Amino acid sequence: METYSIALIPGDGIGQDVTAAAWQVLEKVSAQSSFALKATTFPWSCAYYKETGAMMPSDGIATLRGFDAILLGAVGWPAEVPDSVSLHGLLLPIRKAFVQYANIRPHRLLPGVEGPLKARAFDILCIRENTEGEYSGAGGRVHQGTADEVAVETSIFTRTGVERILRFGFEQARARRGKLASVTKSNAQKYSMVFWDEITEQLAAEYPDVAVTSYHIDAMAARMVMAPESLDVVVASNLFGDILTDLGAAIQGGLGFAASANINPDRSAPSMFEPVHGSAPDIAHLDVANPIAAIWSAAMMLEHLGESAAGERIMAAIAAATSAGIGIVPGRDRTETITAAVLAALD
Ligand code: IPM
Ligand code: MN
User: Fold this and answer.
1) For an engineered disulfide with 157, which of 56, 192, 198, 306 has Cβ 3.0 to 4.6 Å away?
2) Rounded to an integer, what distance in angstroms lies between the CA atom of residue 185 and that of residue 156?
């Protein structure tokens, strides 16, 4: 029997609540399947930082490398540790070190979920570049605290980085409805985004079966609200994808439904699965966080591990719960109630 070793990093705030829920679902579905899951839990978080002075030990990346996948809750406790420290000490280094260059975020309405738009029949797969671009972390500050202070933050776009994420987008489009929207801003950003557009065009020649359209980020933001059903796969740089996927979360009914997968497509290192919502310290441990985004992310993890049937069973169980009205109104149902409904639907 195949056994997958999973690194569980609950992290901060509601990350702990929702990973506990997702793990219960994973345990149940694995018990019903022909594979096993073995979790090793790591306490790396802002609380860990307060104790040790680091978000994870210096050999943290080396430790994680041995796992088949990582399931992460959330990182951040800004009242105690600045986000710029906590995120650059845990989440972002994992994405970069393990070359998880494709951040996959599905945006569609689960059955029973209203969402804020009139449009209901949309099914968007956002592919966000996850290792470079605007979040490369290259920059500096000089003359700090003086009137002459300067801050520089440089976006880095490499041919390797841009080509691989666009290619990933083309492949996803080919496997879905054959439509790719490439998000740009080459009217204003005349180096990086012109480069992005050129590579989009070069790859388009290799994928004659994919209909590709370039949209400026501002126009794409409007399109996701006004005509989301016109979109299939959307591929974007790190910053643009970050913003658009919160918009995607909003149109799918809220962050409680937004799942994500940080994928290393070459499988040279583990991939990481996490809900998009973050740690929400104000509602931590009150049993009110919606675990659906984390459970959906767990389903994406199983699919990545090659256990698609089990992943689909989890998605069907989520759909059964939301169809019955459980977990569809933000803040109404308890974490435990929603988790119990998903678990019951697995029977
Ligand atoms: C996300 C989050 C992170 C990101 C932050 C917390 C650094 O907003 O996963 O979308 O922008 O990557
Ligand atoms: Mn974000």
Assistant:
1) 192
2) 15
- 221 three-class SS: helix
Q: Which regions of the chain are under pLDDT 50?
A: none
- Phi first, then psi: what are they for 294, rounded to 5°? -70, -40
Q: Measured at the alpha carbon of residue 130, what is the angle toward residues 240 and 77, in degrees to the nearest 5?
A: 90
Residue count (the chain):
347
User: Ligand 1 atom 8: the closest Cα is on which residue?
Assistant: 242
pLDDT in tens, 68-97: 999 999 999 999 999 999 999 999 999 999
Ligand 2: distance of its center to the CA of 208 in Å?
A: 32
Q: From residue 307, how far is each of 26, 30, 120, 136, 247 by CA, in Å?
A: 12, 10, 29, 33, 30
CA of 293 to the centre of ligand 2 (A): 14
**85: Cβ below 6 Å to ligand 1?**
no
Question: How do strand 102-108 and strand 123-129 relate by DSSP bridges?
Answer: antiparallel
Residue 276 CB less than 6 A away from ligand 1: yes
Q: What's the pTM?
A: 0.97
Tell me how far the alpha carbon of residue 111 is from its chain's centroid.
21
Residues 76 and 82 sit within 8 Å (Cβ to Cβ): no
